[in-house]
Specification:
Phenylalanyl-tRNA Synthetase, Chain B, domain 1; 12 helices; Alpha-Beta Plaits; BirA Bifunctional Protein, domain 2; four-stranded antiparallel sheet; alpha+beta
């Protein structure tokens, strides 16, 4: 025998038959103790009764199989038969602990980006270097610096989620013609520092914010319809609808040097600044060794601002869908003139109360459509309570078709 092999010793587990009876049946049961002892004995367990009741599992059971009194309870219940155990009411109501509004918001945003837009969630580094800040038109004076940074080349805390996402696009564009990535994290900005006297700790005077960062990469843009800036705007509109932001989303032009002069803006909801959107400038693309003919769109949204703009009850954020929900998906395709946009059609169909959301999955222009025509295909989501009939679903479909045609589209057969 190898002397390093330890001798196998039977472990002993302390139990209480009255407690096991309560855990299984919830009440006193005739001849329970005798039945439980008989079950354990026939399974190879040895019972030692003195001041305490100790049970020794058989040697053929895995050393890690039996560890607690609950493991013994499970053995007794399994052999006794779950079908022979009568159901009893719970002693208290079991209800899920709700998320805080911020946590629920992050879960909602993750769900929208992954399910609706098939984006990949990534994790970016929260520190940035001076060269990157200069490239994006930021200043180190606006960022908090670390006195003893782990990496001397990145001594500053980021003031935007964009920097880390660009690094991930740089690594992935060599292998993929399109990329959709996002991250949720903290950002810090000296310009937003709390000016309060007598504050000693950083948590008291440094303003940190939670931000959603999204970045879309596309190697080739064959037409205006597949410009990723339009997809980024669609992401904003989808988030606004999901969060029940009733005020109009506005895009105010900006003049940031890191972005295309005609494709950048602040995103506002009334007086609330939600974030920024923009296509990276070709010079920034070149310095990052990205194809200058490609397009990289950056979108950032402040989570605190989204909560402020949302009209949802902050104490009861949207719940997850359950198996009891009746989820129905149907596809529609409309044709319009090539110089027209699809927004009137989408807005008209989204206004139908029974339609939960829309997901665009194809934009097409070809010979079989006719000269000067293009088509849009999208998926509609309808949600019921489990009792929607085929006739009711078809009625909703008819509403959507009529709304699309009234908005200027022609249903494609």
């Amino acid at each position: 025998m190898d002397p390093s092999i330890q001798e196998i010793k039977n472990k002993q587990i302390e139990i209480n038959f009255d407690r096991i009876e309560q855990e299984i049946f919830g009440t006193a049961t005739a001849k329970y103790t005798e039945t439980a002892k008989d079950i354990l004995t026939q399974l190879g367990f040895t019972i030692h009764e003195d001041k305490k009741i100790l049970v020794t599992p058989p040697i053929w059971r895995s050393p890690d199989d039996m560890n607690t009194a609950q493991d013994i309870t499970e053995e007794v219940a399994r052999i006794f038969g779950y079908e022979n155990i009568s159901a009893i009411p719970l002693n208290f109501e079991v209800s899920p602990t709700p998320y805080t509004p911020m946590i629920q918001l992050t879960r909602t945003l993750e769900d929208i980006l992954i399910r609706n837009f098939h984006a990949d969630q990534t994790e970016t580094y929260p520190r940035v270097g001076e060269k990157t800040l200069e490239l994006f038109g930021s200043s180190k004076e606006n960022c908090y610096g670390l006195q003893n940074p782990v990496n001397p080349e990145t001594p500053y805390l980021r003031d935007s989620m964009t920097y880390g996402l660009v690094n991930h696009i740089i690594k992935n564009h060599k292998f993929f013609d399109t990329c959709r990535i996002f991250d949720l994290g903290k950002v810090w900005n000296k310009n937003e520092t709390k000016k309060e006297a007598g504050k000693k700790y950083a948590s008291e005077f440094v303003q940190e914010a939670f931000e959603l960062g999204v970045m879309l990469y596309q190697k080739d843009i064959t037409s205006r319809d597949n410009d990723p800036i339009l997809e980024a705007k669609n992401i904003v509109q989808t988030i606004a609808k999901q969060l029940d932001i009733t005020h109009t989303i506005e895009y105010k032009a900006t003049e940031l040097s890191a972005y295309h002069p005609k494709k950048q803006a602040e995103i506002r909801c009334g007086k609330i600044l939600l974030g920024k959107i923009g296509t990276l400038h070709p010079l920034v693309m070149k310095k990052n060794k990205l194809p200058e003919t490609a397009a990289v769109v950056a979108l950032t949204l402040r989570l605190e601002a989204l909560l402020e703009a949302s009209t949802l009850d902050k104490s009861n954020m949207p719940i997850y869908e359950t198996l009891q929900d009746q989820i129905i998906y149907r596809d529609l395709c409309f044709v319009v003139d090539s110089h027209e946009t699809f927004e009137p059609i989408l807005h008209a169909i989204q206004a139908i109360p029974e339609i939960e959301e829309l997901e665009i999955f194809d934009v097409y222009a070809g010979k079989n459509l006719g000269e000067g025509k293009k088509s849009l295909s999208f998926k509609m989501k309808m949600k019921g309570e489990g009792n929607m009939t085929t006739e009711e679903i078809n009625t909703i479909m008819d509403k959507a078709i009529k709304a699309g045609e009234k908005a200027g589209g022609t249903l494609r057969g």
